[in-house]
Design brief:
This protein is α/β, with parallel strands linked by helices. Helices cover 27% and strands 19% of the residues. The protein folds into two domains: 1-25 and 105-359, NADH-ubiquinone oxidoreductase 51kDa subunit (Rossmann fold, 3-Layer(aba) Sandwich); 372-440, no CATH class. A hairpin with a 6-residue loop joins β15 and β16 (335-337). α1 (122-131) crosses α4, α4 (181-195) crosses α7 and α10 packs across α13 (422-440). The structure holds iron/sulfur cluster (SF4) (2 copies).
Length: 441
Amino acid sequence: MCAKTFKGGIHPHDYKHFTNHKAIEKFPAPEKLYIPLIQHIGRPAVPIVKVGDEVKKGQKIADASGFVSIPMHSPVSGKVIKIGPYPHPTGTIQQVIEIENDGKNEWISELQDDEQYFLLSSEKMKERIQKAGICGMGGAGFPTHVKLSPPENRPIDTVILNGVECEPYLTSDHRLMLEHPEEIIAGLRIIMKILDAKRGYIGIELNKKNAITIFKQMLRDQKNINVVPCMLRYPQGAEKQLIYAITKRKVPAGGLPMDVGIVVQNVGTAFAIYEALRYHKPLIERITTISGEIVNEPKNIKVPIGTPLSQLLEFCGGTSEEICKIISGGPMMGFALPDLEAPATKTTSGFVFMGDKEVVDTTEAPCIRCGRCVDACPMNLLPTFIADKVKNGQYEEAMKLGVLDCIECGSCAYVCPSHIQLVQWIKIGKLEVNKLKSQDK
Ligand code: SF4
Ligand code: SF4
């Protein structure tokens, strides 16, 4: 198998063995759900229900507040009991709609099978996607209807489905590819139709050979869709790295994939797009991985959006020892959480639990100028110099060094022998540079 890859990056242990062989299990909807109004990049949704309202499963409960925003829907039938602040899986506090599940599982009436969905016009397809509240499910959360609406001067000839899942521990995309390949391919065809793209690729890392085999078999007679095995290298799943690995096209600094005629979507997003088009189904559940050495029964679970982490951990039999660290998402790009209250959202690909032995000492030491962070950076940046400039408040200098091009992959911090919190400094630098830029406008 001739595998593709990119320059830079690292090889962290993938820890996927905890769950990559475990079929997706369905989580019974909890008694209470907490639906955040912000689960995506863009403006938060605005509630259209009030406390005391009865809702049905799949009913819209919050509306998009602009083009770069998405609506939210109830994953259960029940009653709205609170609208207010609640912990969010990004480690922040956000507004949520709290719903008490009545256990009746009553769907809205609009849900119906539309076997003729592929005959819809591109605009009607996008409308249905927008109505379903779909955003990028690989973690970024960009509203999908926006990504599928490039300006006219940016024609798209290629769609790449991202099935790389390079973050350690996470296996939700892997299991989805094994268990729902037809729906994922149908989702890819919808995206290609909307964008009038002639070529499709599905990029999958070599540690998912069974998924590669399935897709190759299913697409063996298709000339315009290829399955591309990718080498094991983090962050292979980052958009720019995946685009380069598959097409050798380079997205310019500060640019977007559409600048080189490409749109990238996660395999989970393709699945959600298919369900929205075929069944009018809003995005109210997703597959998420609960994993870690100390989790008694690590699993891949189909989770109603808004389910608190505490209940997911309980479903996995709890932990065998005291939890030292909880990470929402993978350990490379995820967020540390203080407790088990946060709910799963549309972008929650997994939660990882670590005990005493897995949490390494990260006391910072001085930089020894070894250059490992530079070698590891997939964006060809100089992380140590950028971090220095930010520490000294020299934000314009940090901007000249390309701080805004950092994709926050964490590779530099991972290899740093001095445990310097490079990504944290770079994130601060990005915030400050963006502030400077907005003052200049
Ligand atoms: S500087 Fe940014 S892009 Fe480069 S390795 Fe560090 S986190 Fe990744
Ligand atoms: S890897 Fe760490 S110690 Fe080495 S140059 Fe980069 S910041 Fe300095």
